[in-house]
Fold this protein.
Amino acid sequence: MSKGKDNKPHIGIFGRRNNGKSSFINAITGQEIAIVSEQAGTTTDPVKKSIEIFGIGPAIIVDTAGIDDTGDLGEKRIKKSLDVIKTIDMAILMITSNTFGKFEEDLIKQFRDFEVPYFLVHNKSDLESLIPARQKEIQKAAGSDIIEFSAVKPDKLDDIIDLMRETIPETAYQMTSLMGDLLSPGDVVLLITPIDSEAPDGRMILPQVMAIRDVLDNDCICVTVKESQLEQFIKTSNLKPALAVTDSQAFEFVSSIVPEEIPLTSFSILFARMRGAFDKYIEGTLSISHLEENNRILILESCTHRVSCDDIGRFKIPGWIEKFTGKKVDHDVVAGLNNLPRPIQDYKLVIQCGGCVITRKQILGRLKPAIDAGIPVTNYGMAIAYMHGIFDRAVAPFYKYD
């Protein structure tokens, strides 16, 4: 499935084969978007579909393969279904025929490990109702609510939607401001936006666009300049920016021009605070100084894009690390939310991009294996600021307001 391309909340539908997951999705969306068949195992790979949920707004429903699939191919399908857990904001576990066992218990353990809120649906209730005594047993074992449902007679559809709204965290669908708590109405924000070889023709990159909108949404004044215009603006303008934000790659140059009394940070660090493991990033950044010869680092990009010789993840950051540490390092780059090429324990440092195209939950799920293994994690902007000697300045605006 296409991953990492949509920052709407993601809702995963899980369960054994032939438990009616696809019929359930068709019922709650009001569309025939999932293939329904009497044959078990119709859904093979996770499938995503955009929907609108009243009270939540736009969301992504993810239909997964049965967790009781069999054979070598079935094991691969199960693995793909389990991989979805780290990318979703909420899970719905489908059961039928009053059946709850190890398959469901193992799934719930995964939900809890990745802090995914969930509830259960006893599906196909038109064929077999939920036995009250069994309902109590399942609720106790699952540690969650369970609701009956039938796609044939979807009279409890409103109850399902209500429970979805109650279960999904508000942070999954409420837009968080990049810098609203750093600003007051009428403040001037200076955005320094280099136009380099990786910028799309005729357009700005997404973090810059989102920053401009955030400034305007907070009733502030946005001034946008290229780095080549920055010195002239500082010298000739009577405006006093409340905050300056630059592309991380221009950090060193911009810091030498923007007066110290003007708070300065980067687009990447703004996104790190909004969507990433900010405190872990702060701690992990310092570990760059402790890298040794031939250590391997993992660089995580959230999107796929045209690669050039100026690519920040593939070329510039590894080069800056070797120059800063004086040590040769190996590195792997993983784009999107794809699987890692080697065990997480092989890495001494993980560097995550800003993550403007994926959700906070997806970033945290992506970083969790490293954090659990005690491997330091950091962010593009923080790493670059640290290696260019301006780390303290780049993170100071957030400590001032936290």
Summary: The radius of gyration is 24 Å.
